[in-house]
Amino acid sequence: MKTTTRSILSVLAGLVTIFAASSAVDAVLHATGFYPPVGDDMSDGKFVVAFAYRLVIGIAGCWLTARLAPARPMKHALVLGGIGVVLATLGAAAMWSHGHHWYPVGLIASSLPSAWLGASLEARAATSVVTAS
């Protein structure tokens, strides 16, 4: 498989993982009644929960992208982080009138650091495997 194709697929794998995992957790929290019905307002406390698991899932998705990247894993993870900035900005624009401005701004601000952390975790793991061998 060409390097360009593998690069694109590594970023897509991270993006799909983040989207699928976040959507699954959202669905479970709505189904269990922890979150109110879709369209109803949520409290800041519930948004803190959403922010926390999105942060963890974002780091994991960027780790996956770095793990699958054919070369330069940090670059691939940061590309995914950049995509996250764009998508979070679009989300912020869509929900701005609903209040809780800290939440979408936090998602925007955490996208690139999450990408860096995910790639750094992969680099550390890769170095540990090489060192242990």
Taken in chain order, the helices and strands follow as HHHH
- The beta-strand count equals 0
Helix run count: 4
Instruction: Provide the low-confidence segments as ranges.
Output: none
Our measurement of the CA-to-CA distance between the termini, rounded to an integer number of angstroms, reads 28 Å
Category from helices, strands and their pairing: mainly alpha
Helix content: over 70%
Taken as a percent bin, the fraction of beta residues is under 5%
The whole-angstrom Rg is 16 Å
Estimate the mean pLDDT confidence. Answer: 94
**Biggest pleated sheet:** none
Shape: elongated
Q: What features would you describe in this structure?
A:
The protein has 133 residues and is an all-alpha fold. The chain has four helices and no strands. 81% of the residues lie in helices and 0% in strands. The model has no long low-confidence stretch (mean pLDDT 94). 26% of the residues are buried.
Defining key terms:
133 residues, mainly alpha, 4 helices, 81% helix, 0% strand, elongated
Secondary structure: elements and pairs:
Elements: H1 3-31, H2 44-68, H3 73-95, H4 102-132
Helix pairs in contact: 1-2, 1-3, 2-3, 2-4, 3-4
Short description:
The chain is built from four helices and no strands. The chain is mainly α.
